[in-house]
Design a protein that fits this description.
single chain; alpha+beta; PH-domain like; 2 domains; four-stranded antiparallel beta sheet; 3 helices; 8 strands; about 35% helix; elongated
């Protein structure tokens, strides 16, 4: 019986550690949603020479920017900040067979260019209703701010 105590203690400690990490993920998601409008949004950067993969995340609207947070991290800081004035909507498309398995069910792929010269192409995967909100947010410029024109 004595030889079972140490492995059970280790297993118990691992379960407690797992529970704490899970609680941190849940608390982080709650705090993100509490501070503004959030939606599930996967991100993929388009690279001309290599294929890139989707990264699961959550996006949050701010007045003049979109903050994007990775799902599987406990960092309270956004992984990516997209300024509204430098973000241009290109198109939205239905995911192909390869993408369906990498993004959330029912999502559409939104292609955007980003940067001063719109040299970077980003793809965001979100639900159709989230796309409607995203497109509306992009078009709605606060008073006194000059919208970026392509």
């Amino acid at each position: 019986m004595g030889e079972l105590v140490a492995p059970l203690e280790i297993l118990g400690a691992l379960l407690v550690l797992f529970g704490l990490v899970l609680a941190l993920f849940i608390l982080r998601r709650y705090l993100l949603a509490r501070r503004g409008a959030t939606f599930d949004c996967s991100l993929r950067r388009e690279h001309p020479r290599r294929a890139s993969s989707w990264i699961l995340g959550v996006a949050r609207y701010e007045e003049d920017r979109l903050e994007w947070f990775r799902i599987f991290t406990v960092s309270p800081r956004p992984s990516r900040v997209l300024t509204r004035a430098q973000l241009l909507l290109i198109e939205w498309i239905q995911p192909d067979e390869q993408d369906v398995h990498s993004i959330l069910p029912g999502a559409v792929i939104v292609r955007c260019s980003y940067g001063r010269n719109h040299s970077e192409v980003l793809e965001l995967a979100m639900t159709r209703s989230d796309y409607t909100g995203f497109a509306t947010w992009l078009e709605a410029t606060p008073p006194g701010v000059q919208p970026f024109s392509a």
